[in-house]
């Protein structure tokens, strides 16, 4: 029993150290759920009924001086050339009803946060604040951890909004509710830091959590913005390919805004639709290995041009897997598919 308990404790500690990565993987796996029920899956069936045929003579020809037969009358709605839009369900108009629509998702995320935080919280103290700074060279991770908070909150808001939208039939009405819930979940996680000896409740973290959720609201409520602007994470491979924890994990991360020209009418039918414009931030030289080598901390804003893989490979996917893969590309930048300069 003791051996089993030690094994379980070690596993939970490992998962807790990977919490930001797990939130990312959870979001990428789950926010694609609405793509599984999009209109592309709907098969148009013609339920219209043919009208009565004109009377004919014995030889099968129109009797007497009857006019030539007219086209057969069709009764019923004429199917449009486009897939039917989701039907809006007014049942989910209020904040409380929208919260109820995702209660199990919220409960599951909160439970996961609780388990992982308890696993790594041993030395505790009373509630206290800690000033972690912003993006200064004296900060622990040069601000990359702050953008991680913003991105995680943004991803949770996108996930919850997608789930609300799937039930309500309206992709924008639940954006504010989803943002409030995402911010609340992130604050709940921050409360554990507030009781750890090694950390504290960080106002900076809370503000970036709120900022990430607020960007999700803008992206889902401003007409056309979702087709034009993405908040993405680029993970540059290192010697371990991917590091799950520690400063090396933060050093891999590059956060960016991607402006997709395919979202603009004037570029939609031109080769420019395959082009994206990037601006982002990353930092280096702040790990223990970097400091041992005598490297100075470096903060970099980068600009670049990228290839719109979603437009190239998943513009009109016919399968659920294709739609899910296209959705993932709204949140993840694939390495080596863009040229960036600092």
From TrEMBL:
Secretion signal, residue range per the UniProt entry: 1-39
Region Disordered, annotated ranges: 53-88
Source organism superkingdom: Bacteria
Keywords: Signal
Protein name (Swiss-Prot/TrEMBL): DUF2279 domain-containing protein
Originating species: Edaphosphingomonas haloaromaticamans
């Amino acid at each position: 029993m003791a051996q089993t308990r030690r094994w379980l404790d070690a596993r939970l500690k490992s998962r807790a150290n990977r919490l930001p990565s797990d939130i990312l993987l959870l979001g990428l796996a789950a926010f694609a759920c609405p793509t599984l029920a999009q209109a592309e899956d709907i098969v148009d069936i013609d339920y219209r009924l043919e009208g009565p045929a004109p009377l004919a003579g014995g030889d099968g020809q129109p009797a007497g001086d009857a006019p030539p037969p007219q086209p057969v009358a069709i009764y019923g709605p004429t199917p449009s050339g486009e897939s039917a839009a989701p039907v809006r369900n007014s049942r989910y108009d209020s904040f409380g009803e929208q919260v109820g629509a995702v209660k199990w998702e919220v409960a599951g995320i909160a439970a996961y946060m609780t388990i992982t935080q308890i696993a790594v919280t041993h030395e505790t103290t009373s509630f206290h604040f800690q000033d972690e700074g912003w993006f200064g060279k004296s900060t622990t991770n040069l601000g990359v951890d702050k953008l991680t908070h913003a991105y995680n909150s943004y991803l949770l808001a996108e996930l919850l909004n997608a789930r609300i939208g799937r039930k309500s039939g309206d992709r924008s009405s639940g954006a504010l509710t989803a943002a409030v819930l995402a911010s609340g979940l992130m604050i709940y996680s921050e409360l554990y830091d507030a009781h750890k000896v090694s950390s504290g409740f960080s106002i900076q973290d809370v503000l970036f959590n709120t900022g990430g959720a607020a960007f999700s609201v803008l992206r889902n409520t401003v007409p056309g913005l979702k087709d034009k602007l993405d908040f993405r994470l680029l993970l540059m491979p290192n010697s371990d390919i991917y590091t799950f924890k520690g400063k090396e994990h933060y050093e891999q991360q590059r956060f960016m805004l991607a402006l997709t020209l395919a979202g603009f009418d004037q570029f939609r039918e031109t080769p420019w639709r395959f082009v994206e414009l990037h601006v982002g931030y990353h930092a280096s030289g702040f790990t223990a290995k970097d400091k041992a080598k005598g490297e100075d901390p470096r903060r970099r804003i980068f600009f670049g041009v990228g290839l719109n893989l979603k437009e190239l490979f998943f513009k009109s996917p016919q399968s659920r897997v294709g739609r899910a893969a296209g959705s993932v590309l709204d949140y993840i930048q694939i390495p080596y598919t863009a040229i960036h300069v600092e």
